[in-house]
Amino acid sequence: MKSRALLALLASSENGQRGRRxxxxxxxxxxxxxxxxxxxxxxxxxxxxxxxPLGVRLTSNRRELSLDLSTxxxxxxxxxxxxxxxxxxxEPNFLDWxxxxxxxxxxxxxxxxxxxxxxxxxxxxxxIAYNAKTGPNRWFAQLFGDAVxxxxxxxxxxxxxxxxxxxxxxxxxxxxxxxxxxxxARMGIRVTLSRCDNDQKMWIGSCDIPSSGAPPIEDPxxxxxxTQLIASVRHHLFRMRHEGAxxxxxxxxxxxxxxxxxxxxxxxxxxxxxxxxAYEYHPRxxxxxxxxxxxxIQRVERFSTEIDQLIDEAEExxxxxxEDEPGNSMVLALVSNTAGHLMRSxxxxxxxxxxxVKINPSNPMAWWSLSSANMYIGxxxxxxxxxxxxxxxxxxxxxxxxxxxxAFGAAYSLGRYNxxxxxxxxxxxxxxxxxxxxxxxxxxxxHFGLGDEVETAVQALRKLEPDFQLRQMYEDPAYPAxxxxxxxxxxxxxxxxxxx
Length: 500
Description:
alpha+beta; three-stranded antiparallel sheet; globular
């Protein structure tokens, strides 16, 4: 209740700000200073956790807590309404404040403001520039720029412009500049991402590759450069979303992706609402495909037991997404993932995964989907190969655990248990709320006879899955740990012994 009171105190202020000491005195007036400070920190953390998935912006410094009023809706009171009706906190100072507000014209309720952005074009843009004037170096720079533009257009609506000379003046823009140098039998490539207004370098990457052989744009080092650059562009634009650097659908999509990869049941559900809102602003197949992927996660993570409903909803999203964007590699990858993990249709999953990789080999999710599809049809060695390719591309991603998990699954299925154990540990460290690595860590710890570690992993899983029972892993075919029954050489009897 006090976190709600804290939100009301901030929302009712003129600028969304309140001093820490004032808040402590209003909400914990009878507590010691140290206790009041600790309580405020705890309620603030709870409030941020609850509102962050909905796009509500909360910031703080040593003196003040702040709520961005543009990220909530404030409803004016009407005749007969009571300000914060039903809220009661037995703190004299809070009750005094509440009574004073009820006798004023203060707005009476608050909610996340999903309508706060208008349907306007993005004020920011991406400028792709290259300084090579003629010859093969210019050709490569053009191909590199084309690949960057294609990747951005697959996932964002921000305008991408080409500046052949690199001297035009642009405001509210990021510049991607590619320099290519000939080094005997090799090519040296340097790529920078900078702000046009002050030339601040946001990201720099470089590599050198052979000048002969396969087309240089397909070289793994170049593909890796493209992936890292796109990740940096998305990261910096999202950080600047409150400055108008992103259109509303892009901002909602980026927030939804962060919610999805949290693997938290509440944040995943919030992501679905954000994507629905993004589609209202800009009807892209990408947003629908991501909503279908959410249904797959809800099945695998046991967030929902209404499997038929999940499948029906996902089928509708997938059909429409393929009508809207049949050539978008991210859409194809998400279609593949949903077909495999929700519909349990391996052939369909493999078809769309192959198309995704062919269209855009610099998309890490394309390789993830191809790895997953091959796992489903029993091509485990190919699955590991594709998982490693995806992992190399996603090396600097904040969601790297997703690719580590896929590589783990392939190593586990091949009986490479020491390698699988290290990968599962790494996934768990990156995202402790993600359930699959904990399930398989239990089996691996049992396999290696590590009883204390088995108990620790079981307790961690039960915090996320309160009804978990160890026997489910070897008795329940519907429990999402199917690799245990397929992995060669795994000591399943060790699991039974721990249960008994």
